[in-house]
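Example record

The entry below shows one chain as it appears in the dataset: sequence first, then structure tokens.
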Amino acid sequence: TNAAFKEALSRIESHEDCRNLPMISFLILPMQRVTRLPLLMDTICQKTPKDSAKYENCKQALKEVSKVHSQVILGKMDLSHLEGLQCDFLALQPFPLVSSSRWLVKRGELTAYVEDTGLFSKRTSKQQVYFFLFNDVLIITKKK
């Protein structure tokens, strides 16, 4: 409701350093980084020779980063219960599939068993779904 704040925010968002990104993208960035850290540490552990002295340090770092990640995710879940509108807003944002920090880890076709529960019946049907596992996101699709 503060006009001066709105004007300052608009001026900051339009600055070339911000690349015309809205404030919400900068607020989400730390969360995205925290979710990527366990993947990065796991990759480092996989690339470190197991007989190396650094391997145990990598495993310990992965354990600690995973703990922080879990705490952040649990904190986000608690917050999402309190502020349902925030989660709805985030879910409606366009998803940038192409990113310089994203790569495909694995893809494949799987059979999903979907349970349909009716008033007097319960039936299970099979659907073919395609999974695309990237380093930071899992996308599940259906063939049209």
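Notes for this example: The chain has two domains: 1-98, 99-143. Residues 99-143 form one domain.
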